[in-house]
Amino acid sequence: MTASDHALDSLAVAARAADAKGGDDLVALDVSGPLPFADVFLLVTGTSERNVIAIADEIEDVLREAGSKTLRREGHSSGRWILLDFGDLVVHVFHPEDRMYYGLERLWLDCPAVPLEPLLAG
Description:
repressor, alpha+beta, 5 helices, translation regulation, Ribosomal silencing factor RsfS, five-stranded mixed sheet
């Protein structure tokens, strides 16, 4: 199974928003095979709690403008790990220490990466 076109379109919008707000180490994983509820995870690192919140807010704003509704948001008040669920796209914005600690890349190691360079350029 592969990620839907809608998930990839949403990923492109979210990745550009994260990059514009200074998000680091962007990684996208196609989780459509093992997960029935999402197609893509986007992992982003912010440089501070304030930056993590700013990145998450920007992603939420631009995806809302593009017609996607946030189904669930967790962790916004702490700014350490914010999860934004848009259905087929789930965005994780981490503080650097939390990203290293939870290691989602290791947990989803068997899922293929989605190349972000072409999406950020477009």
